[in-house]
Amino acid sequence: MRQAGRYLPEYRAIKDRFGFWEMVRTPEIAAEVTLQPLRRFDLDAAILFSDIMTPLTSAGIQIEFNPGPCVTTPIRSHDAIRRLRLPHRSAIAPFVVNTIKMVREESVRPLIGFAGAPLTLAAYLVEGGGSADYGVLKRWLHDNTPAAHDLLRFLSDLTTRYLHLQIEAGVQAVQIFDSWAGIHSVRTYDEFGLPYLKQILAALDGTGVPRIYLAVGAAHLYRQIRTLPIEVISVDWRTPLDECRTLFPGKTLQGNLDPALLLASSKVVTEETRRTLRQGLGGPHIFNLGHGVLATTPPDNVARIVDIVHAYTRTEDDVL
Amino acid sequence: MRQAGRYLPEYRAIKDRFGFWEMVRTPEIAAEVTLQPLRRFDLDAAILFSDIMTPLTSAGIQIEFNPGPCVTTPIRSHDAIRRLRLPHRSAIAPFVVNTIKMVREESVRPLIGFAGAPLTLAAYLVEGGGSADYGVLKRWLHDNTPAAHDLLRFLSDLTTRYLHLQIEAGVQAVQIFDSWAGIHSVRTYDEFGLPYLKQILAALDGTGVPRIYLAVGAAHLYRQIRTLPIEVISVDWRTPLDECRTLFPGKTLQGNLDPALLLASSKVVTEETRRTLRQGLGGPHIFNLGHGVLATTPPDNVARIVDIVHAYTRTEDDVL
After folding, report:
1. Do A134 and B260 touch (CB under 8 A)?
2. E-state strands within A43-88
3. In A66, A277, B65, B165, which residue has its Cα 20 to 30 A from A157's Cα atom?
């Protein structure tokens, strides 16, 4: 999950001086922010500091942060979609390439790259920003099905190029964030989500880079998600890991402590971290939060869970 | 689900003249608003116009709408919880009793009463309103477990009295709305949600009134929800009804058209309504939306689905 952020005073110090896009687009700043959590905590991997909307700007789409993404001109018409041009790989986000190289030079820890899932990107593009019910998106998908597929195909092609670019630049794993998958019915996800994820993930076959997929609030989609060509399934806090183990045979599980519990007392943080570790026994498990660190998280609680995870010894209960 | 609302011009005409609490607390207005959808559409039942926060005001809790509920003084301390006094049944919401009586006199259609689930009510009381991540609520539940159980016990007792009051006044079914159940992990729901729901629902045993339960975005909790003593499980649009049929043996299913699809063309509305009806075959099914009608819904699309449902004939595929 996102590791950098407002809960870190050193992040706020940078955020006070620069706009969000300026931070993302300036490799020195983006690399520094990527590394901030690693300087403070004994983490086992870094995740690139960027945003899922980053590659879209190279296709001429204007996006601001306020603080969530706002698309200046929502993309809904056939014309707007026809005008979208797939940028050459080198034009997508050259600053990301430089950020990745700088992080790799500065740190020996594995670096995770990422992208947004096409259907989640489309949610922002069509709505123009976040929404309580995503009614505009859902109506649009159903009333403009051919245009919707054109947009999703474009987003898949762009994402595939963007992830290849990150892998070439040096990321050692990639994660696809499908933050809004959970708002959709099984049928909508089947038609507008799954095929494009499969296309992107299959295009990464043979790169040797582990593929991680995260869908939030998506327990109803797990039967479909298990068909994705991924090495790692990242699960939010809703379903316990031992249950996820049965749902995703052969996959490495990533997760799944509720980030909200990092706001609680050290006793609760300790208990819940240990519970997550216990529930992750029975197969490969990458300890992580179920979603990004909340802005009000005390950094000491992050330090505490890193210590607990590193001190944890797999017991004989572990059926690995 | 909620049937009245801003999508109806006749509702907006009333809303322009009165505050929300004034509408809820004036039986003539609340009864009129309850009946508005029945005057316009050939619906098979009415649902009381009120709010899940209604009974809380009788316990001295100040709530405003802006437009979601805002609790003036969030309830988090042991003292605040100790000060909560369970009102006598007749003091909880006398205006609701009068509204129910007026609706029953004016309409022969069955009337559904409702209440909020304790854990969903607690979400608003502890956070002070809606929230993106409910971090304050989750921290509070874990850091103040005994106080949390005191609050939830109070809310269960209040809800039990409130539902008995509605049944005595004449409602012919009751629905418990657990709008925020889905944000919780299986474990949190197990400790803070399920026992209180069971207490309320068991207390309605023998009233002869069907009990309906709705949890939103809660597919990960369905294994627990199936243990509730209810006659009807109301499901949102995420999981298709034929799958829900297997998950909830012996229950009547209610749902589950995505309210966002009512924003789409009449072709889409027709197709998706028929699909929902087909997927509901195989057992008792109360056609409904998966959640409340959205404010931007064209009333004609509501009329259309009512017509389609009434014209639908169960086929030989129906294994009832």
Report:
1. yes
2. 46-47, 63-65, 69-71
3. A66
